[in-house]
Structures are given as structure tokens and as C-alpha cells.
Amino acid sequence: MKYHSAIKHIVCQSCGLSLTRHELDHYWKKVRSENIPEADDIQQKKNKRKEWLEWYSSSKESKEKDY
Fold first, then answer.
1. Which of 12, 24, 26, 40 sits CB 3.0–4.6 Å from 17 for a disulfide?
2. Is the dihedral of CA 31, 35, 38, 42 positive or negative?
């Protein structure tokens, strides 16, 4: 892939696909998430644990406000 500054697109040399940087990032994330679903599950579990730990370590008053 090669960047063309005149049109501000990245163009594939073999197939001619032309994308902006934003579009390329979007498709890259989509392809990556399809190929590595386990990583997302692991990350979600880590985020859940982190949220729980923050809630658990917070003060009693803030816990009561949440419920």
C-alpha cells in the first residue's frame, strides 16, 4: 500500500483499493476482531474485574448512591 498525498488516500498496489486512513483503521480493527475473539473476551473480563475493584474500594456513601 502506498500513500498518495494529492488525494489523501492509501492505495493498494496490487488491487487498486483506495482508502482514507480512517477507513483503513476501521477495516483493520474489524478484521482483527474477527480473527481474535478470545482477546476481546479476556479484555471484557479484565474491565469487569477492574470496575468491581473500583466499586469495592470506594466509600460506603458512594456505593449507596449507586443503588
1. 12
2. negative
